[in-house]
Amino acid sequence: MFGLMQDRPLLISGIMRHVARFHGSAEIVSRGVDGSLHRMDYATLDRRSRRLARVLQGLGVQTGERVATLAWNGYRHVELYYAVSGMGAVCHTVNPRLTPDDIAYIMNDAADGLLFTDTTFAPLVAAVAPLLGGALRAVVVMCARAEMPAMALPPGIALLCYEDLMDAADEEFDWPEFDERTAASLCYTSGTTGRPKGVLYSHRSTVLHSMAVNAAAVMGLKPGDRALPIVPMFHVNAWGMVYAAMASGASLIMPGRHLDGASVANLMNSEGVTFAAGVPTVWLALLQHLRTTGERLHTVKRLGIGGSACPPAMIDAFAREYGVIIEHAWGMTECSPVGTYNTHRVMDGETEAESLSRRSKQGQALFGIDIRITDDEGGALPHDGKTSGNLQMRGNWVCSGYYGQEPGSALDAEGWFTTGDVASIDPQGQMLITDRAKDVIKSGGEWISSIELENLALLHPDVAEAAVVAAEHPKWAERPILVVVAKQGHDIDPEAVIGVLRGRVANWWLPDAVIVDSDLPHTATGKVSKLRLRQKYRGYLVERGI
Ligand code: AMP
């Protein structure tokens, strides 16, 4: 065949190469763990990333090997994103908010050879290290020699200093070319039943996702923008913002660990942030800070919100009180993560109420993603905006099989991935999440396993049946509440049930209320009907001001 176009692989290193060559003076500004600001241009970031690739070579990192990170959003973490993937290894971002047990499970499953960590996580790493199976050969602390924390590690795991390694390396490294279907990064999700599962992104899926996210109808970043990913880099690659911002030539402002309203407002105004993205809990804290202090946002034009449903009142408040547009998005780890986006536009003839209702939906599918809703037998349901069904997706950055499992094993016979969300889609293609079929709770952007809490509650000698469901919460979007039924002839002391859970799960997992009920609703097959329980108790905390 004649006249075909060039066939260049879509590689993550291509983003770094591009930004260094054409936007080398745009910058990455990072707030360190001590609150200080660090700034560096992209030309320097490229050189340091190549130097880091040399460090990784020196530490024996092989193609395809997993290199873990436990780190905040900052420039060293970005260096790792590019150096690890760019050299052909897999950047495995680990969520530090999980328990040491879950972190050890995830790191053992991934068989991470190295772990890079911020100084803040030294106690966590010390707790996790003895639980690891033997693949890990070194922990590298992302700091200078003077900041190195003391850390006791089991024999066979070396403790190294990031800047010492960087000082000892050179920059003689050219980003290699390889197949774009090579694995680039790995992220585990706890958003399903059972143990966390890994989603392995390829270079191709990552670059396509970055390009789609940069479309004008999505985040649409461009040179001169200053983008602030509040969403952590350990949450689905900060929703792709690190790649998307750099591919567009926008500067990156990295918040580190300081995500309270005052710190975020301060960073936004002092650094001239134009776009930021995060979960509703963070924006609620910002809104409260602005309202109580009277501070204004001087440069922010748009905020991307996802991870949990954005309350319409928040969309309205940011627009009316601060002139900031909220763009509501939906996605998941299995979708890299962005699947739908509610882009800003003004529609003729719409009332204010209609406009707010439209803007509150999770948006339209990105080009590259197809979505549909089905009934429980898998039959497609109409996109009429009224019918709700199981949300399915397929596309260029959707997981095919979980890490370690067969390709295609996460899909149905027609190649659709079932999200576990329940949604309606209107004739304009606007998707609205109406419920969740998966049995989990999402609190402040983090997952809580209802099944794990139920199993622990059943350890209490007075408890016959236990069910944990999500109740709405003004700050955390959702909080778990535990509904228990007593064994015949027994009385339940709610505090004693909490006592059984305490110490066995992270404190923020503890239910906000224990409700003693006479029985639980069941489905035809005898399972507890979470749907009916959720309906019954959804407003429990809000109504009582808990
Ligand atoms: P994760 O894999 O941790 O990113 O979580 C993905 C899940 O978060 C989705 O399957 C939804 O249940 C939920 N989610 C994400 N974005 C939204 C949103 N805008 N509204 C409601 N739920 C959301």
How is this structure best described in words?
The protein is 29% helix and 25% strand. With 546 residues, it is an alpha/beta fold. Among the domains are: 20-26 and 37-202, ANL, N-terminal domain (Rossmann fold); 439-544, ANL, C-terminal domain (GMP Synthetase, Chain A, domain 3, 2-Layer Sandwich), CATH 3.30.300. The chain has a nine-stranded mixed beta sheet with strand order 2-1-11-10-12-13-14-15-16, sandwiched between helices. β13, α12 and β14 (325-331) form a beta-alpha-beta unit. α1 (12-22) runs antiparallel to α2 (42-58), α1 (12-22) packs parallel to α9 (241-248) and α4 (100-110) packs across α5 (122-128). The model has no long low-confidence stretch (mean pLDDT 95). Bound molecules: adenosine monophosphate (AMP). Adenosine monophosphate binds at residues 189, 191, 236, 306-309, 328, 330-333, 337, 362, 419-421, 433, 436, 442.
